Amino acid sequence: EPSPPARSHELETYLVTPECGIMGIIRQVLTERVMVSKFYNFLKGFQVHNEYLQSKSFCIWKDTVLENFPNQLTETAEFMCLADTAGYIDISYPPLMRPERKVDVVLHLNYSSGSQTSPLEEASKYFLKQGIPFPKIHLSEEEKKNLKECYIFEDAETPEAPTVVFFPLVNDTFKRYKEPGVERSPIEMAQGNVDVSSIFSPYCLNSFTYTEEEFDKLVELTSYNIQNNKHLILQALNSAIEQKRQHKK
Fold first, then answer.
1. CA 80 to CA 32: how far, in whole Å?
2. Which of 28, 71, 181, 215 could potentially form a cystine with 210 if both were Cys, beta carbons 3.0 to 4.6 Å apart?
3. Does position 71 have pLDDT exceeding 90, yes or no?
4. Which residues of 14-34 are buried (b: 16+ CB within 10 A; e: fewer)?
């Protein structure tokens, strides 16, 4: 755990604002984080820096990075800028992986554009670095070129590691089936043409709006992929239940 200073909320800090416009731009480039959204500061007036490190309720864990200037924690700022964590790691469940949570199964629905496996691979490296039990993620380059609709990753040697049920965003059997086990008729084949991987895909990173048809197709595709592989979800859940039973014996 990091060693906090005795009275960090009383750090002496100085802010020098250059008058030259060019120097101001350089200062912003060097000191400010990349912003995604700017919001009214809902923490304005809330003195979160008031000896919070000495509070018994303040929890420091392996991934805690203490603020260098806790006496500047947006107490008086009118706005606050929130950065998208996807710039660092494009998953949302690191907080769930604390040991106290005792997570058994993770359903990873990857709807990012670009590489479908990279977010999960980066997550695996992140948890390894933090010493958090997590299954190893390994797919060959050939497998990455021809992704299936669903994968199960688990670590039989580490009972504390959760089972990961991974759904990449792919259009595989949906091209031929409108529902699991129900083939498309010739006039329905066009509904199965959902481009989620090419550079011309309407669902790429810089697409912020979809037509009604594009939206419906994406929902139908993702719903189908989950329904078509529900047996793998049930398999992972049953395996987790059985593992808990074994530990209780």
1. 12
2. 215
3. no
4. eeeeeeeeeeeeeeeeeeeee
